[in-house]
């Protein structure tokens, strides 16, 4: 799968396909010589945000073992570039966010699950990834756009 331009909406029918969309976004960025930035993901529990991140990381940090950072809040993967994988599900205020080191993450990518919880702290420009449940248990619609 390749992404030629944004915005785009893609339908997936399995976790592997959602991973492939994450990898396609990373390859799109890489092909445009972009090796840093902020990816804000939104979507309910089980939508596939961690699956998407696994695919995204497979391009820049192929050796990374991507797991949900829900309890750790942030996982760091290293490869061609660094990826900070955040899950802000449990973040309730800016002090909380500050204590994760969020404001010192100034290299590589930040890819954030539950970014709707930290709306006030989201930078521009950024990429927004919305994963929505579709008809059928394993179907999702993924919309990726650039916010400037
Ligand atoms: N099309 C799909 N894309 C992503 N995950 C899917 C899809 N269909 C079923 N699933 C299942 O949904 C769950 C997604 O989990 P995960 O990526 O951890 O979601 P989130 O991080 O959004 O909570 C997994 O159990 C996965 O097997
Ligand atoms: Mg998750």
Task: Record keyword descriptors for this entry.
148 residues; 24% helix; alpha/beta; binds adenosine-5'-diphosphate; Rossmann fold; single chain; seven-stranded mixed beta sheet; binds magnesium ion; globular
Describe this entry's structure for a reader.
- Helices cover 24% and strands 28% of the residues.
- The protein has helices at 15-31, 49-60, 94-99, and strands at 8-12, 37-42, 74-77, 83-87, 109-113, 126-133, 140-147.
- The chain has a seven-stranded mixed beta sheet with strand order 1-7-6-2-5-4-3, with helices on one face.
- The longest helix is centred in the first third of the chain and has 17 residues, at 15-31.
- It has one domain (9-142): Rossmann fold (3-Layer(aba) Sandwich).
- Helix 1 crosses helix 2.
- A hairpin with a 5-residue loop joins strand 3 (74-77) and strand 4.
- The protein is α/β, with parallel strands linked by helices and 148 residues long.
- The protein binds adenosine-5'-diphosphate and magnesium ion (MG).
- Residues 49-50, 68, 87, 113 line the site of magnesium ion (MG).
């Amino acid at each position: 799968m390749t992404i030629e331009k944004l915005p785009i909406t893609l339908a997936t029918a399995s976790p592997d396909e959602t991973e492939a969309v994450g990898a396609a976004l990373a390859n799109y960025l890489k092909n445009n010589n972009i090796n840093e930035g902020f990816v804000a993901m939104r979507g309910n529990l089980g939508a596939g945000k961690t699956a998407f991140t696994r695919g995204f990381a497979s391009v820049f940090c192929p050796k990374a073992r991507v797991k949900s950072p829900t309890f750790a809040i942030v996982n760091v993967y290293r490869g061609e570039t660094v990826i900070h994988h955040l899950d802000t599900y449990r973040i309730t205020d800016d002090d909380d966010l500050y204590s994760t080191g969020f404001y010192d993450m100034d290299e590589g990518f930040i890819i954030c699950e539950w970014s709707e919880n930290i709306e006030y702290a989201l930078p521009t420009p950024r990429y927004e990834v919305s994963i929505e449940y579709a008809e059928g248990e394993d179907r999702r619609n993924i919309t990726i756009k650039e916010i400037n």
